[in-house]
Specification:
The protein has two domains: 191 residues, Zn-dependent exopeptidases (Aminopeptidase), CATH 3.40.630; 90 residues, 2-Layer Sandwich (Copper Amine Oxidase, Chain A, domain 1). Helices cover 32% and strands 29% of the residues.
Length: 297
């Protein structure tokens, strides 16, 4: 029996044009990578070899993603390509909603299980399993590889956009897909509580500059994403911060943010926070510094 590899493809990159919510508070790549990394950990814990097509925030060309699947098959593996996405409709907010899964002939049964699990676990509208001329499903089929592309909710729908930002929803999506893959390949699914805990990755401290001035507070870098202290950054540029203790939700200038709480301080992804504050963001790797600017001289 050939070894099975699940190749997880977190669609798009940090600078892919248009792949963000209408208000700019959510970039699709952040959601895609968050779900993909969670899914990889769950599959590895179940004994399934799960690999990411791309490790950083760049937008790898589609042909390179499907070529990875092709090359793994040529090496003698059974390969399945699963691409993770958030959906969009139109140029502004819309009422389009729900989850849909695209597939090719080789992955029809797996796609049906994934769609069923996702709808059951998230409670979102079932938009069905579909076929379309998508590179991921079309080109993987050329090599006889099962290809699935899942759309896990609309970032152009205000309610679903708010969901997509939350760690809890990303966890639900990753768990549902992991369960579906385990079901399809008859592998026991191990719930998170029973999974071996991975060794914590080092968290790098990052400095923050706003319009050339160093901020006293600092942020941190985890899994390639810079997280900044919400109140310190927002108040430095006159932003309004609201905190709802009941929902543990932070609003900046009236926009909900996806946050993590560390020692009582709320942190948000740098690009998401910059978007609601009307700031441009630049990352300097050598200096481990996030530079925020208003764009004004």
């Amino acid at each position: 029996m050939k070894k099975l590899i699940i190749l997880l493809d977190p669609g798009h990159g940090a600078e892919t044009p248009g792949k963000r919510s209408p208000d700019g508070t959510l970039r699709e790549y952040e959601f895609n990578r968050g779900v993909s990394r969670l899914l990889q950990k769950k599959l590895l814990s179940c004994g399934i070899d799960a690999r990411l097509t791309v490790q950083d925030d760049t937008d790898m060309p589609l042909v390179q993603r499907t070529n990875q699947a092709r090359d793994s098959k040529r090496q003698g593996y059974d390969v399945v390509l699963v691409s993770i996405h958030a959906n969009a409709a139109g140029n502004g907010w819309s009422t389009a909603n729900g989850i849909e899964t695209y597939t090719n002939d080789q992955a029809e049964k797996l796609a049906q299980i994934i769609q069923r699990r996702l709808v059951a676990d998230t409670g979102l509208r079932d938009r069905g399993v579909k076929r379309a001329d998508l590179h991921i499903t079309r080109e993987s089929a050329r090599y006889g590889i099962p290809g699935v592309l899942v759309e896990l909710g609309f970032m152009t729908n205000k309610d679903e956009c708010a969901l997509l930002k939350t760690p809890a929803y990303r966890e639900k999506c990753a768990t549902a897909i992991a369960k579906a893959i385990c079901e399809h390949y008859a592998v026991p699914f191990k719930v998170t509580a029973d999974n071996p805990q991975p060794v914590a990755k080092p968290v790098d401290k990052v400095s923050i500059e706003i319009n050339g001035t160093r901020l006293a507070a600092s942020g941190y870098l985890r899994d390639g994403v810079s997280w900044l202290p919400v109140r310190a950054v927002a108040e430095a540029v006159g932003g309004k911060v609201e905190w709802c203790a009941a929902t543990k939700q932070v609003k900046v200038n009236g926009h909900d943010l996806s946050v993590t709480i560390e020692s009582g301080v709320s942190y948000a992804p740098a690009r998401e926070l910059a978007a609601v504050l009307g700031l441009q963001v630049t990352w300097h790797q050598a200096a481990k510094t996030v530079e925020l600017s208003s764009g004004r001289a």
